[in-house]
Task: structure prediction
Amino acid sequence: MKFKLTLWRVIFIVIMALGLYSSYIRYFHGLGAATNMTDQFPWGLWIGFDCLCGVMLAAGGFCMVGAVYLFNVERLHPVVRPAVLTAFLGYLLFIVGLLFDLGRPWFIWHQMIYMNPHSVMFEVGFCVMTYTTVLFFEFLPNVFERLNWKTPIKWINKIYPVLIVAGILLSTLHQSSLGSLYLIMPSKLHPFWYTPALPFFFFASAVAVGLAMTIFESTQSAKAFGRQLELPVLVTLGGALLVALWVNLLLRVEDFYHRGVLGMIFKPSYEAYFLWIELILTFVIPITMLSFKKVRISPQLLYLASISAVLGFITNRLNIALIGFETYVGHHYVPKWTEFSITLMIVAMGFALFGLAVRYLPIFESESAHKLEEPEVTVGARVLSHAGD
Amino acid sequence: MSKAILYDATMCIGCKQCEGACAQQNKLPYDDTVAAESVQSAHKYTVVLTKNDKFMRRLCMHCEKPACASVCPVGALHKTANAPVVYDVWKCIGCRYCMVACPFNQPKYEWQSLNPRIRKCIMCPDRLAAGKQTACAEICPTGATKFGERDDLINEAKLRIQQNPSNYLPHIYGLEEVGGTSVLIISNAKVEDYGYPSSAKIGDTPMPEYTGRVMERIPDFIPLWTLVLGGIYWVSHRRDEVAEAEAESKNGGRR
Ligand code: SF4
Ligand code: SF4
Result:
């Protein structure tokens, strides 16, 4: 195969080159040289985007596994593998991101020996570590199938129920705990975003983003790899996304009302502008769109609606991590170019690895391949449904 | 018993000798340039601020229930029995959660270092262990920074306010704030004017409780949620098994 220099490849190479240069600055000149973080702003873009958003964007894994294996939504079966793959890569890259952000990344393993059970950060770290291992096992069948190793696949099938339950349990815990990280800062975080309900919001938004991301990535990879999109899958996901967005919206409004900030929302202020962007992208646009049947059955429009929702929730987390602190701190934090560059590099790595995995592993393979991996009972169900046809 | 520092801003003459003594105790550079810096940093754990000819000292408050220690994933910070909140650098992974969590913004970071440490006042634990007072209290020429038993200092602070009500605001900062701190401040200027968070803003609830309320549910949540998830799995797959068995017997009958 000859290597062709496409536009995307050029962009990728540029991003990687800049990223490597920024990594050099980060590791050889310190956090001070590589970031705009200060004693007043100790958490910046890397925590806000790479960690908070990264974990959220990888939520599709547990959502789809839950839908298919726990609730038996058979239709969604074709998207489980790409979702698990995205999640696995997402968590690996989250750990890469941490290695940039931690001041002493070489001691990251201290998490495992000097455990402080009162720390939310410890809980998140521990769950993420275990969940990445679970995802690794959920991902392994892809490799085994490719190599045609039947026995290990059988072993994994045996423990699959445990993997499924453990994976969802761990996800529930750490997705919500990311929100709990901010519970200890009631005097710092702006009242638009500080609420005792943060852990619930983080979980609820993870589910919505899990659905939206699955729509996004199915459509995206269908385009990129010239695959046929399975409309019923998208329609199901779109419907679920609409419900999830409504649930999120009602929870948010209830919380605003309950804490008496509903009036503040409509008064123009620095924070209000960012809140408006967030609410419009997360709720107004996608909910309006998805309320039309025409949108719910059009892959193109569904794709746009889910992008809007994903961007909205990303804004939400950046607001919590960055914007929500600016008034308290008294000045703005704008990430340095090196911070952007490293974040971009990590995202680009994600896309590249996804592309490689899809090319070399049976991620989007035909039905027959799936049968190997799924518990036999589910196969039974399909036999049944075919028999009924 | 629990020790504390009482800082009486009305007695402070702004000589900054505490700054110098602190720097010396912690082997930090101290000269006129550092003395002129009016912000705390990785090389300046305490600072004496001036506003309208009144002085105010800032330093780690050594909270009774410190936010910093509760959030540290590796337990690198902890409260010792006699008051100091100390730091074990060899454990620290540099997540800086302590910095974001501290309501008084006390932990500072060595941003320029390649192996950075958290820096803050640690209340001279070695001196305390040797039965001595903190370096800042020892050097203070007027007694504005006073070291002693927390209970005694509280009584003394109350007495000073009582005997001279026109000279003080009627409040001991640190007595109740975030559940009490081992640094107590009395003054006739508002602490907020010097960058301290107002009492109303931080409240009397110990910071760790905000997360504790959620964290303490987790041990119950894990088995419960596992059961629920396992239950759902079992039910939905049981249904399949039954359906499959039925389908088989039907097919068998047909055959
Ligand atoms: S003032 Fe901040 S750094 Fe000092 S003990 Fe309290 S929480 Fe920790
Ligand atoms: S920066 Fe170090 S001391 Fe502070 S919370 Fe993180 S690990 Fe603990």
In short: DSSP finds 16 helices and no strands in chain A. Chain A touches chain B through 62 residues (CB under 8 Å).
